[in-house]
Amino acid sequence: MDDGRIHVVTTTGIIRDLVEHVGGAHVEAHSLVPDGADPHSYEPTLRDIREVVYADAAFSNYAFLEQHSIITALDANLHEGVPNVALAEESASHGAELIQLVENAKLNTIWLGMRIHGDGTPYGASRSSEAHLVTHGVTGPGKAFAYLTGTFGEAKIALNSSDGFDASTGYQDDTATLPIGAHTHLSWVFTEPGIYTIDIAADVQPTRTDRPISVGEAELTFAVGVDPSTAGRPDAVVLKAGHADVTADLDAHAVTVRHDASGMGERQESYSAEDVIIEVPSRALSEVPADPRFRFLGEPGTQVYQLAQAVLGAHIHGEIDPHLWHDVANTMAYVQVIRDTLIGVDPSHASEYTANADAYLGELEALDAEVQAAVDTIPPERRHLVTTHDSFAYFAKAYGMDVAGFVTPNPAVEVSLADRRRLQQTIEQLEVPAVFLEPNIASRSKTLAEVAEQAGIAVCPIYSDAFDHTVTNYVDLMRFNATSLRDCLAGS
């Protein structure tokens, strides 16, 4: 029944809370991701789709915070003309400061992923479109594989040359699918030393009902356990360190390799995939694990050459850290975008939306000062933040803290021995008095609790992406985090 209110759909509970503060009595807001759920992995339901269909406005965070199917649900089901606002992008016009998402794997081999570069406008693509990197064939002395280690250790295969390449299915078993503008991590495995070539084609699919449109094709060369000079290509650029991505370049209409030698996101060079050789050195030798989920690589204990996936867990993202709301000033920019959007949808209540926004902005300004005051009570030498989830860079920059480390590269994956050693060293060298876990993923971080117990330090709660029964709104989330940090880091 139409009750006269504006019906707004948001992706997360945090955005829903902001909309409710600005909209007041004239807005009904529904978040697709339930409180307590992870926006990075939540899949929308039929009920969610119904909410989208009847929405008068939609707000997402975007910057690849949400699972891509959530964004697709918005873009495919909102009626024409309904505002579909990506707050992380639009908030910059109101002064939000964006932080580049920097990843430093510190590996002793190159880190090689896959990427979709460009917005796809010449192909009629949008943010809900998909692009594909498809392997048509492999030559070399052994077998080649590329796979993504998922959140709970399962392997999602992007390339498996051991079972051939089936053109009749569109090579669907040897295809990596990514949203426009995203990149993903991969492990690459080769069973024998020598020179390999991999034939890769790229295409873009504007909508699920469209036929894929070709972007380009290329032959990518790998030197596995041998000197790259044996490939007989003296003019090729040899890539042996840093971060590189096999790229469907929608602007250049070609398959390229984008390379950042530092691994820190400082500078990217783009090469034609035909002009490079990827070096897989002898030190990349590894053994097939006993886990039956990796049996496709060979028998357990078999030696293979592996360019390891630098960050474990299904991890697709863009170039900007999406967690802007951990800086209250950025959230104030979100509020102003929401205010302007609601006024555009319902101008008859513009004065009330403006008044509601002004009152809330005043509350947020006081909250910003309160958070800073809490952090200021922590001695500078103790302002080191160790968490499970890479989402507190904005908080650290805004309030003068140091993100000292993460429990694992992805919070849903068990800690490796190397991760555990690094964590222990960080705690010892910085004399960290506490580490911080998000309540909704604490059950998956037993190892961190063990390390903390051995070090005699506290394990304290912190909230990132979602509310629960304890923290039910944004102001409470920020206030809880500030209090937890103060109590756990400032004390003796």
TrEMBL record:
InterPro entries: ABC_LPXTG_lipo_actinobac, AdhesinB, Bact_metal-bind_prot9, Lipoprotein_PsaA-like, Surface-anchored_actinobac, ZnuA-like. It is found in: Cell envelope. Its main location: other. Keywords: Metal-binding, Signal, Transport. The keyword Signal applies. Belongs to the bacterial solute-binding protein 9 family. This is Anchored repeat ABC transporter, substrate-binding protein. The lineage of its organism: Bacteria, Bacillati, Actinomycetota, Actinomycetes, Micrococcales.
